[in-house]
Specification:
This protein is an alpha+beta fold. Helix content is about 25%, strand content about 25%. It has one domain: 3-Layer(aba) Sandwich (Aminopeptidase). The longest helix is centred in the middle third of the chain and has 14 residues. The protein binds coenzyme A. This is GNAT family N-acetyltransferase.
Length: about 180
């Protein structure tokens, strides 16, 4: 029910001191989708409530990072952002990446529902993301569905990239 840190198991808030490690993990997990360190630093600074790291055996072994954004404007790879929109409508899940040794242990199953809950509680209408590699089936398990992105928005993410959204019930949201 809460967006506080309790109940996140091995996950904790990402701090500025984690950015180098996070960037290193992104290079290891997504070698064909390089993003600059500044991309992670910007987002952590702009929206700390959407930035988490996974601790395993005393080191950071994964991260999850995202922020309020506009669903119609999925961000290009390696895009810097200077500010968040005044009227965001989605929680844009920029990336979730775990080192191989940290996978299959249920860590994603903790942080993804947390992000979804956080988005709902902060009044956003959806969670959206660009699924890369073969991750779309993983996201569909949480209720994400394929969504049309306008021409060119997925360029740079690879041929198999998919734009996925999880839209909340407008009735339950009291909007639209
Ligand atoms: C995708 C990823 C984040 C999943 O993390 P994880 O900690 O291994 O996932 P979990 O152990 O929490 O699994 C949650 C559920 O999803 C399932 N799952 C995991 N990976 C899956 C996949 N690729 N396709 C379908 N289901 C998957 C698990 O079996 C589990 O199901 P269960 O609850 O019935 O047991 C992780 O494998 C990863 O970092 N991959 C590389 C980076 C990546 O592709 N990130 C997505 C970028 S958009």
């Amino acid at each position: 029910m809460s967006t506080q840190m309790g109940g996140l198991g091995p996950w904790r808030a990402m701090g500025t001191g984690d950015i180098d490690r996070v960037h290193g993990i992104s290079e290891a997990v997504h070698p064909t989708l390089p993003e600059n360190r500044a991309v992670f630093a910007d987002r952590q600074a702009l929206y700390p409530a959407g930035a988490f790291v996974l601790e395993r055996d005393g080191t950071v072994a994964g991260y999850c990072i995202g922020h309020p954004w506009l669903e119609a404007e999925p961000l290009p790879l390696d895009a810097r952002i200077e500010r968040l929109p005044v009227r965001p409508d989605t929680f844009y899940l920029h990336d979730l990446a775990l080192l191989p040794g940290a996978r299959g242990l249920g860590a994603a199953g903790i942080i993804v529902p947390h992000i979804i809950r956080h988005a709902r509680e902060t009044g956003l209408a959806s969670v959206s993301l660009i699924a890369v590699a073969d991750s779309a089936p993983f996201w569909r398990r949480f209720g994400f569905r394929d969504t049309q992105a306008s021409e060119g928005k997925l360029a740079g993410y690879g041929a198999d990239a998919r734009f996925l959204t999880l839209r909340f019930d407008p009735e339950a949201q009291g909007r639209h």
